[in-house]
Specification:
Strand content of chain B: 35-45%
Helix content of chain B: 10-25%
Shape of chain B: elongated
Structural class of chain A: mainly alpha
Strand order of the largest sheet of chain B: 1-2
Helix content of chain A: 40-55%
Oligomer: heterodimer
Structural class of chain B: alpha+beta
Radius of gyration of chain A: 14 Å
Number of helices of chain A: 6
Number of strands of chain B: 2
Strand order of the largest sheet of chain A: 1-2
Number of helices of chain B: 1
Largest sheet of chain B: 2 strands, parallel
Distance between the termini of chain B: 32 Å
Number of domains of chain B: 1
Radius of gyration of chain B: 10 Å
Shape of chain A: globular
Number of strands of chain A: 2
Order of helices and strands of chain A: HEHEHHHH
């Protein structure tokens, strides 16, 4: 995850509190989705950014997960995300992010 | 899901871009406080 994004997330967590934040990912595959989710749940696994060793335990979902999709109007979903939903491996991505969500400290 | 939450959108160029996710969140009444589209090369 970009170092500047990590700094922003850390600042927002300080400002709003961890429980108030919800992270939605758009990663293209299960591996990158898992790393992004890990970064906001358990901390930056590369130890390079501001979230290194920061176990924020944020709520995190991928945009292709049913929990997110079910919140969005069908027409909006189709217009904004529809094509990519056909291309990406939604099942694998969803499993990866869910697995990391369940490791929330 | 979005009620009383501050939403952080981390899109990716090769996946789903930040603005597309943000548009979905906003249409459902969510409050987006940060949105980006990252690019891994």
């Amino acid at each position: 995850m970009d170092l500047s994004s990590q700094e922003t997330i850390k600042r927002l967590a300080d400002e709003h509190g961890n429980e108030q934040l919800l992270v939605i990912l758009g990663a293209p595959d299960a591996e990158s989705a898992e790393i992004a989710a890990e970064t906001v749940v358990l901390g930056d696994p590369t130890y390079a950014g501001a979230l290194a060793e920061a176990q924020l335990g944020l709520s995190v979902y991928h945009a292709l997960e049913e929990e997110f999709r079910s919140q969005i109007d069908d027409d909006v979903w189709e217009e904004q995300i529809g094509v990519m939903a056909d291309v990406l491996e939604a099942e694998d991505i969803s499993a990866a992010v869910k697995g990391m969500r369940e490791q929330k400290p | 899901m979005f009620e009383s939450k501050q939403v952080i959108v981390l899109g990716e160029r090769d996946g789903i871009a930040g603005p597309a996710i943000a548009a979905c969140v906003k249409s459902a009444g969510g409050n987006v406080v940060f949105a980006s589209t990252e690019c891994f090369v």
